[in-house]
Amino acid sequence: MNTDIRKLLEGVSDGTVSIDDALLKLKTKPFEDIGYAKVDMHRKLRQGTAEVIYGAGKTPEQIIGIAETMLKNGQNTILITRLSAETASEIGKYHPLNYYKDARCGIIGPMPVPDGSGKVVVATGGTSDIPVAEEAALTAAVLGNEVVRLYDVGVAGLHRILAHLDDIMSASVIIAIAGMEGALASVIGGLADCPVIAVPTSVGYGASFNGLSALLSMLNSCASGVSVVNIDNGFGAGYLANMINHMNVRKES
């Protein structure tokens, strides 16, 4: 069961939350219609993670309005993905915003204290994959995970990843990010005893087809326990890693 709902019901059971307050919490409308967006207020209750704003294609005014609605309804930390520097500058005039240029992400509010069951390792084949990796790493961190970054550890110099076996072996989940032929995911998948999330990137020369080559390689990985998200989808990988890293937390709560 979702952790927030369980805590609410436990509060009713032990008397720290009144029945009326619990009813009010559950009856609050599930979304708020602000004209150009229907902001999902029950996402955290349903899925354990509040809504994230996808910034691409939205005007600064739209993002500001959505963020204000979230803040008004008690969301303390807001992640905005695929956010341009120009739009971030406009948002910053209305809300304190930390902008991460490489990741193209903005964060309103404080970073949470990590409460996952272990560490999320984010590894890249090369330096050119770092923008996608930073989107994944920031997403995982915003959702309450301790993140370890291993950058530029691709298979062209296999000794580089082998130098970090302690991090690989102690991870709860690993995000392997690579372009070109995408071999990093198979190598890590053959070393680790935890789930591996492969992220193909659009990095590479012509025959890489903007990430399609890496995507197909990762989908055909011979290593067991490797799942694959879409090309350049660092957010999706970070979100999935968060879910995996909080499975034991949900069972214990």
Automatic annotation (TrEMBL):
One of its GO terms (molecular function) is hydrolase activity. Gene3D superfamilies: 3.40.50.1970. It holds the Pfam family AIRC. One of its GO terms (biological process) is 'de novo' IMP biosynthetic process. SMART domains: AIRC (SM01001). It comes from the Bacteria. InterPro entries: P2CMN_synthase_LarB, PurE_dom. Residues 118-250 form the PurE domain. PANTHER family: PHOSPHORIBOSYLAMINOIMIDAZOLE CARBOXYLASE-RELATED, SLL1489 PROTEIN. This is PurE domain-containing protein. It comes from Lutispora thermophila DSM 19022.
